Predict the 3D structure of the following.
Amino acid sequence: MRLLAISITALYDYCSHTCGYCDYYLLSVCELGSQKLGAMENNVPKIDLSARRSSVSTKIVKACEKYGFFMVANHDVPLNVVGELEQQGLQFFARPMAEKLRAGPGTPYGYGCNRIGPSGDMGALEYLTLSTNPASPDYIARRARTISNRPSKFSSAASEYAEAVRGLACMLLDLTAEGLRVLNDTSVFSNLIMDDNSDSILRLNYYPPSNDHSIGFGEHTDPQIFTILRSNEVDGLQISTQGNWITVPSDPNAFCVFVGDTLKAMTNGRFVSVRHRAVTNSQQTRMSIAFFGAPSLQALIAPLPEMVPAGMAPLYKPFTWEEFKRQMYSGSLRLGDDRLNHFRA
Ligand code: OGA
Ligand code: NI
């Protein structure tokens, strides 16, 4: 065991110095060994958005309560918008490492490799993170100069994708509010993401072939409101439910929707923020694109009064998104830790 620990430390050191690919064999043995893998793929809820509005909103609420996760089919994000960013992403990750590093260091924005967050968490992936703050419309264009030889192509692909998926996130959040019967303001969630200073981000995750089921992106919950993610046709995403890991079948025509910690707090814990992770495939490269819909830094997050049962105290103290992020980046929490604990009433 001691030998194993030393080897992993050595691997980490290697990564931080060269940013090369790692052999994650040891990590996968350690981290996956004790966990059960469920065979419940068919149970992952997939919601057809072309169905009746009231039925869709009821299904969304049920899925958010039970799993904190669902997939959507028949969305109206144009396929060419998805295809363009996918192609731009693959071109970027295919560039020589020295060129990719110019778009780094990915803390928090830009290109990153293996290191996830400020607390030493590692994964067998590369990623490219972009701010999509509507108040800085030229941000992606400036970033694109280090990302692509044809920056305007990259920049329009990323901006169009972010706007289309922001629209999908808002539509789903309005349906969620309807399903929750927050009827006096069904835009209560979507307004946070539509804010001019919304801190939403876009991230492309790239998992090169590695030992089957190595940890690509370790277990965690997403901190924001809703995450909207799609991937190419390679499995790898897993969600945790009732102590089991379920493989989410890949479907390039669908989007995966994750309840984040912020929405869990606003629903006073009625929604689960889903624990999930990504594992690698030994044969094929997987690329996912995630939009993390977030409030502005100043937004005050608190359980909605409608979500707190009469006579009960709210489960969470009010906090600003800035306070939540400060705690997240303080280095005191690991990727897999419960970040909402700190804000329990
Ligand atoms: C994430 C994430 C999973 C995936 O980026 O937060 O959970 O499938 N990604 O890439
Ligand atoms: Ni995630």
The chain has ten helices and 14 strands. Residues 264 and 316 are 10 Å apart (CA to CA).
